[in-house]
Every structure is written in C-alpha cells, then in structure tokens.
Amino acid sequence: MEFRTIGKSGIKVSAMSLGTWAIGGGLWWGDNDDAESIRTIHAALDGGINWVDTARVYGFGHSESVVGKAIKDRRHEVIVSTKCALQWYDGGGEHHFSKEGHEVHRDLSPKAIRRDLEMSLKELGTDYIDILYTHWQCHTYGLVPVEETMGELMRMKEEGKIRAIGASNVTLQHLKDYTAAGELDAIQEKYSMLDRRVEAELLPFCEEHGITLQTYSPIEQGLLAGKVPNDRVVKPGEARENKLWWKPENIRLANEMLAGWGDLTEKYGCSLANLAIRWTMMRSGSFNVLCGARKISQIAENIKSADVALSQEDFERMNQDALAAMAKAVR
To answer: Each residue of 225-276: pLDDT tens digit?
Structure first.
C-alpha cells in the first residue's frame, strides 16, 4: 500500500482510506450487522489501510459508535477523521435536511463545532481526533465567517484535541478563506472518473498549496463495479436518490463503458471496481481515495486495487472512455 502525507501535517496515511457512512445504517443504507462492520474495519487495518473516516451525522452517531468500538484496542494504529457542523440538537444554523425524525442544520459557529467535537471524542472513545472536517459550509456565504470557524479549529489543535483541520463540500472561495485564516490540510469532495467537478478549481488549488483532497465515491456508490442492471430503480430515501449517474439512462451509459474493459480486467487479473479505484489513485498525488465498505468481502476487494499495475496507456484509454460517457450523460 502506498503512503502519502496529509497536507503539511506530517501525518502519514495509506493512499486509500475506509469510509464508514454505510456503517451508520439507517434509512440511507438499511440495517447493518455491527459485528461485521467492526470485523470490516479490522480487516482494513490488517490489509494496510490506516485512515478511517466517519462523521457525527452518519447514522446520527451510530457510525462513530461502531468505529469507536472497532478501534478501542487499536487506536495507535489508526488515523481517524470525523466531521462537525451538521447538528440536529437545536435550531441553530441553517436547515440542511430532514431524516428519520431529525431536523439537521448546518451550524459552523464556534460553540456548535466545539460541542460536536466533544460528542465525537466521547462516541469514538478517544481523547483526540486526527483530522476534523467541517462537513458542510453555510448556505449563506459568510453567515458564520470562516475566520471564526477556523479560529475555533485552531484552538482545538493547540489544545491537542485535533491534529489536522479539514473542510468538506467547499467552493474555491471557501478554500481561500480557510487557508487565509489558518492551516488547512485536507478537503473531502466527491470525485470519480465520471464526476470531475473538482478538476476545474479545487484540485489545482490543492496541488498548488499542498492540501490533500480526499475523494469519496470513486466507484459512484457501486455503479462502476459493473454489477448494476440497466433497469435498476433507486428507491426513495436511498443514498443514491437523485444522483446523476443513477438515472436509468446514465446507468446504461456507464455499463456500456464498463463492458469495453473486459480485456483490462483480464490483463490485470482484477475487477472493474479495482480499475476504477486504481485509476483514481493515479489521477493525482494530492488524492486520498476514500472507499466505503461494511463487509469484509468489500474491503478485501477494495484493497486489491492498490496493487493493480495499471499502465499509463491504459489509464489514458480509461480516461478517454469516461470523458466520452460524461459527454453523453443525461442531466
């Protein structure tokens, strides 16, 4: 497993990380076997992945709880990131969404993110978080000035409660504000070969300023594994609801692209998902590729991607095929 450094923090992490949104279960992902989830996290650590990512809102605290149980006796082996600023405890901040009887608000005030941190520390059973992300930014730009949010994050860092600062779901302006107000080491954004919005502004800024870009959904929530039938219909409330590439017309486009890579899976002795993940790992040295899993079989499959010796020629072929599919996508 290749290792990279998170921003300027000096924290060494595997180039692939484990995402635990699905481990939170609930209406987003359905019921889970928590014991299997814990075994999956252990399998990730045993397989060379040392970065585990979670968030307060994943399963409304359940994901953090499961991660905490999994790392209880292995904390020294794990780089843990979690996220603050989405809260469902009071009406503070701006409304974000409603789910499972909760009204979730974006609240980036110093008081709110401090409360989130303390809850995360308790749920995860640790006295420090390696990377703390602000999960979503204010709907209204500047409602809580970034310098106020960053000021509190920097205080948390000085106190030793966090080791590095991250931000998720940002614009270029947010990035500029964060870096002007303190030391930003990482951002987390959606990226796959079929969804490259970060390439326009965010990735160049990260590459120039030494910021890690942790990419989530590298296989488009399972679509690029090549196992989704063309007639798959997303159910209301599912995590994939209203996602561009899960429209029926676009599922067919993706499957047509994947069908042309049979020779590549044979050449490299790997799966389609391995190809997609490895392609993403190669796209930029600033990337850390976040792969979700809640079963041992899933994490074992993901880990194989790190060993795919994808040639530059085949990387470019996949790149061109994906760009052609993107050009045809139904918006």
So the answer is: 999 999 999 988 888 989 999 999 999 999 999 999 999 999 999 999 999 9
Alpha-carbon span 104 to 288, nearest angstrom: 28
Instruction: For the chain, count helices (H), then strands (E).
Output: 12, 13
DSSP class of 126 = -
Q: Residue type for 312, please?
A: Q
Query: Running DSSP on this structure, what letter comes out for residue 234?
Result: P
User: Can 128 be counted among the known catalytic residues?
Assistant: no
What CA–CA distance (Å, rounded) separates 101 from 132?
26
Active-site annotation holder among 58, 133, 178, 191: 58
Q: Which two tokens stand for residue 152?
A: 């509190």
For the record, the structure tokens of 174 come out as 């947010």
Instruction: Return d(Cα 325, Cα 256) in angstroms, integer.
Output: 9
What residues have CB less than 8 Å from 328, skipping those under 6 apart? 253
Closest to 225 in 3D by CA, of 276, 262, 287: 276
Q: Report whether 105 contacts 95 (CB < 8 A).
A: yes
Q: What is the residue type of 288?
A: N
Average the pLDDT over 66-80 and give the result.
Answer: 97
Give dist(CA 185, CA 48) in Å, integer.
22
Tokens of 124: 């995860």
